[in-house]
Automatic annotation (TrEMBL):
Statement: the UniProt record of this protein carries the keyword Signal: yes
Protein's name according to its UniProt entry: Phosphate-binding protein
Domain of life assignment: Bacteria
Signal peptide: 1-24
Species the sequence originates in: Desulfomicrobium norvegicum (strain DSM 1741 / NCIMB 8310)
Length: 276
């Protein structure tokens, strides 16, 4: 499988109108506006950004919104260097990042990060200690955790990933990840990799989990967004949009829209918990 290095979604809405989107509310603020917004960074954000952009551009075809992935590190760097208007991150910014770039953060959702395995894998529950031992390379065969006699194939994300940082910090307690791990570049790429490898184990945003992968319980606790919001499931983070300084113009309108009650349905449909 060829790993995805990045992907770009560019949504340009022309004559197509989708019923139900052009209702009264914050979308009215885009009336008469024109221009473009460039967004890059965390891949967990893309379903929400895409649908919000679709609604905005349907209401006003004079606006173009370009959405690129790349991971949290890309979001920080590109927003900080003025290469994009909004840099998405799957974690809070560090004090160093804020000081270096003058970034301002806007949280809009809560998301859990879960271990995922191939659906054919019989393992239905793992302990935190077992997960740590698997990713460090101490446990290398599924039979050691109640599965088949088969080698474990590790999948991880690169160090620019906010999903990786949350998983490494909260699940692995900043322990080692074996050098043998296959590195993939996005939540979507992780899902494809694990779904195609019977011996695979990886991790991803709960919002990306579907029938193509299986999310085992962790110490008996279901890795659901409701459990993440309540704190029962601990491996969770907020999703952020970040701008260089306070946002202005179209960028401010976009952020106001995504963080408003008008986008809670988009956020919930993407599998996340709205902060509204």
């Amino acid at each position: 499988m060829k790993a995805w290095t990045h992907f770009v979604i560019s949504l340009i809405v022309g004559v197509f109108l989708t019923s139900g989107f052009a209702h009264a509310g914050l979308l009215d603020n885009f009336a008469g506006q024109s221009g473009k917004i460039d967004i890059a960074g965390g891949t967990a954000h893309i379903p929400v950004m895409t649908e919000a952009a679709k609604r905005i551009m349907t209401a006003n075809p004079g606006i173009r919104i370009n959405i690129e992935g790349g991971g949290t590190g890309v979001g920080v760097q590109k927003a900080g260097e003025g290469l994009v208007d909004i840099g998405n991150t799957g974690r809070a910014l560090s004090e160093d990042e804020i000081a270096k770039y003058g970034l301002v953060s806007f949280a809009f959702a809560v998301d859990g990060v879960t271990v995922v395995v191939n659906p054919a894998n019989a393992v239905a529950d793992l302990s935190a200690a077992q997960v740590q031992d698997i990713f460090s390379g101490k446990i290398t065969n599924w039979k050691e955790v109640g599965g088949a006699d088969a080698l474990i194939n590790l999948y991880s994300r690169d160090e620019a990933s906010g999903t990786r940082e949350v998983f490494w910090g909260k699940m692995l307690k900043k322990g080692a990840i074996a050098d043998s791990a296959n590195i993939v570049a996005s939540n979507g790429a992780m899902k494809v990799a694990v779904s195609q490898d019977a011996g695979a184990i990886g991790y991803m945003s709960i919002g990306f989990v579907d029938a193509s992968v299986k999310a085992p319980t962790l110490d008996g606790i279901e890795p659901s967004q409701d459990n993440a919001k309540s704190g029962t499931y601990k491996v969770a983070r907020k999703l952020y949009m970040n701008t260089k300084g306070q946002p202005q113009g179209l960028v401010k309108l976009f952020i106001d829209y995504v963080t408003s009650s008008e986008c809670t349905d988009i956020i919930a449909k993407a599998g996340y918990i709205p902060l509204q």
